[in-house]
Description:
By secondary structure, this protein is of the alpha/beta class. It has 2 domains: 10-31 and 99-225, Rossmann fold, CATH 3.40.50; 33-95, Putative phosphatase, domain 2 (DNA polymerase, domain 1, Orthogonal Bundle). 43% of the residues lie in helices and 13% in strands. It is built from 10 helices and 6 strands; from the N terminus they run αβαααααβαβαβαββα. It has a 6-stranded parallel β-sheet, sandwiched between helices. Helix 6 runs parallel beside helix 10 (217-225) and helix 8 (156-167) packs across helix 9. It is globular and about 50 Å long. Mean pLDDT is 90; it is low at 1-9.
Amino acid sequence: MTVTDDALPEAIAGSRTWDLVLFDLDGTLVDSGAGIMASVAHALAARGHPVPAGHDLRSYVGPPLVDAFMTIGGVPRDEAELLVAAYRERYAGEAAVLELYPGAASAVRDLSARRRLALATSKPEPLAREILHRLGIDDHFAQICGATVDGSRRTKADVIASALDRCGADPTTTVMVGDRVHDVDGAAIHGIPTVGVTWGYARPGELEGAVRLVDTYDELLAYLTS
Length: 226
């Protein structure tokens, strides 16, 4: 369920002083769509499933992959887990060439001087740590939180819960930054508002539950530090 503006109105969210800013990774900090879609296509073909058109492959960017293969691909959980294994065989090479969105590095650097930052991603945590380290921004994050490899921590809500616990953070002074409905809904479970970024992979109208949409990192920085 997507939370509406009535549940978390911007007037209330905007009156808070943020202590912790949670960042999504794919589609928010890094433009990972091409690599994810190529790896999903590889996994589907390797397992004998039809490969959807490029536009439909975009739906796989963001949510936990086991869930995505089950809901989008329509396969049972055991097959979804085999698809994830095939996906990871290909994606290791794709992750090695990821780049930050323009403006992301400076925004993270500037924001980390005024707010605590943590990563909250559906990617496996060891891979998320490797990506941020290679991109040279890992030192700006108090915690780097992701899914567990064994699937025990999988959903965005689970990852956010881990981030809150590890940061000793209060949800009422925490804000999420992401590009998909999974970010909005996962944060809302903890009473956390989301700032939606428009440069990611959301479909039209998908981020209607966000308290603010921003088109640039400059807008994001201004909103979070005002």
